[in-house]
Amino acid sequence: MVWAETTPASVYTARKAKKVFKHYSTPEGLPDVIVQSITKARSGGYWIGMQEKGICYFNPLKEFQIPFEGTWSHGSVHALLDSGDLLWIATEDDGLVELPLKQENLPE
Predict the structure, then answer these.
(1) All domains of the chain in start order, with CATH
(2) How confident is the model at residue 22 (pLDDT cuts 50, 70, 90)?
(3) pTM: predicted TM-score of the whole model, two decimal places
């Protein structure tokens, strides 16, 4: 699967074998219209970093889910790295932020 982020308001996936392109935006559950980073999660899904709404987890078989409670206060997300136990998030306002990833707390 290939992911492409575009501005404004879009994320696209492409599956080579099926020759299918799929578009995701706010009507499909994406929390923000500007996606700035995408990384493969070790759990099999994808972490998506956005300009104003922080991060969300995407399971290709389900909808977008936000993996944390509360309001995002770290600014734009510029890069993501899933190291297994931690999600490292490069943010505009607070630099490097770490989010503990406990298996029982991950979205399905």
Answers:
(1) 2-105 (2.40.128)
(2) confident
(3) 0.77
Tokens of 72: 């995002």
Q: Are strands 77-82 and 86-91 parallel, antiparallel or unpaired?
A: antiparallel
Q: What does pLDDT average to over the chain?
A: 78
Whose CA is closest to 60, among 15, 94, 10? Answer: 15
User: Is residue 12 a contact partner of residue 38, using CB atoms and an 8 Å limit?
Assistant: no
Rounded to 10 degrees, the C-alpha dihedral 61/70/54/66 comes to 0
Q: Are strands 46-50 and 55-58 parallel, antiparallel or unpaired?
A: antiparallel
Helix or strand or coil: residue 90? strand
Residue 100 tokens, joined: 């503990």
